[in-house]
Write a structure and sequence with these properties.
By secondary structure, the chain is of the alpha+beta class. About 30% of the residues lie in helices and about 30% in strands. It has helices at about 1-20, 30-40, 40-50, 50-60, 65-100, 235-240; strands spanning about 110-120, 125-130, 140-145, 150-155, 160-165, 175-185, 195-200, 205-210, 220-225, 245-250, 265-275, 280-285, 295-300.
Length: about 325
């Protein structure tokens, strides 16, 4: 009789082991009791540190819950991307508004185009851009990034392609800029970690002639106006010390198109005093111009109205 009962119990255990977990819920109390008797310490740890909800998910995963979690994670990712894009657009709008205040010329369209590589000649950093005469791009057209930051000028073009010479290339030659002492970069929580801030209108405007050194930066000396009537040497020294790292340098070169005036060349990275009491500055663009994947080409609506002034010394045309 006992052997028959044992055989019946064994068959029942085999059936329960093969059944789905939800069909054997009624044996959970007995299983927990047996687990407590066999391994008391393990059962206590399991009861304290492993919530019942987590155990149910482990033993009987719910596809609907997993799908909702995946959808939630996807929505969070899209939200972060949208917030980053909003910050980029806010920064771009702010820079465009500041540029518009300094240059009222509006007769220009901007054409976004991909940079498809560098020139085959390793001695130059010419950028090959996927836009040409069919889109109105020709020699002298200005290329920018982020709407207001100068990349360089187009040196030649065909129907579909053009080649842009960055301002940091040695062959780009000199160009004239302007330091606005009331305008500098301040840290912000935007994608680039930088933001333009315009200070009071009474800030100075100082001219600077810059020349590329072939290492991604421009260097040059600040030109101070002559001593004015009633100005003391202390006033002069205070004015010369106004140029500091972090200040923006904008384009102010008569050999460039009118619509390009007051676009951003870069930020002063270093300012040092020379032996002749002049101040030498190092200006770095806000991006590596040779690693851009896209630029905007400024195509004037009226090429004659946007034409640069001619015959002005100190201008830097590509050589």
């Amino acid at each position: 009789m006992s052997s028959r009962r044992a055989l019946t119990a064994l068959c029942l255990l085999v059936v329960l082991s093969l059944a789905a977990p939800r069909l054997a819920v009624w044996v959970d109390p007995m299983a927990r009791l047996a687990e407590t008797l066999v391994a008391p310490s393990q059962s206590v740890i399991r009861a304290v540190f492993l919530p019942r909800a987590e155990r149910l998910i482990d033993t009987d995963p719910n596809p609907a819950v997993a799908g909702l979690e995946a959808q939630t994670q996807q929505l969070r990712t899209l939200l972060r991307r949208s917030e980053q894009r909003v910050r980029e657009l806010e920064r771009l709008i702010e820079q465009l508004q500041q540029g518009r205040l300094l240059n009222q010329f509006t007769g220009v369209n901007q054409l976004d185009a991909a940079v498809i590589g560098l020139h085959a000649n390793l001695s130059t950093s010419l950028l090959k851009v996927l836009a040409g005469t069919r889109a109105g791009v020709g020699p002298g057209s200005v290329a920018v990034f982020d709407g207001v930051n100068v990349v360089g000028r187009v040196v030649d073009s065909d129907e579909r392609l053009c080649r842009v010479l960055p301002i940091t290339d040695r062959q780009a030659g000199r160009l004239r800029g302007m330091v606005l002492t009331a305008e500098r970069l301040t840290p912000e929580s935007d994608p680039l970690g930088r933001r333009v801030r315009v200070g009071p209108a009474e800030g100075q405007r100082l001219s600077v002639i810059l020349e590329p050194n072939g290492r991604g930066v421009l260097t040059g000396s600040v030109e101070y106006p002559p001593i004015q009537a009633g100005e003391t040497l202390e006033d002069r020294a205070r004015r010369e010390q106004a140029v500091e790292p972090g200040m923006l340098v904008r384009l102010s070169d008569p050999s460039w198109p009118r619509s390009a005036q007051m676009l951003v060349l870069g930020v002063i990275e270093r300012a040092e005093r020379l032996d002749n009491d002049r101040r030498r500055v190092t200006v770095r663009p806000l991006a590596d111009l040779e690693r851009l994947s896209e630029v905007s080409l400024r195509v004037p609506v009226d090429a004659l109205a946007d034409a640069p002034e001619q015959g002005v010394p100190g201008a830097g045309a590509p050589r």
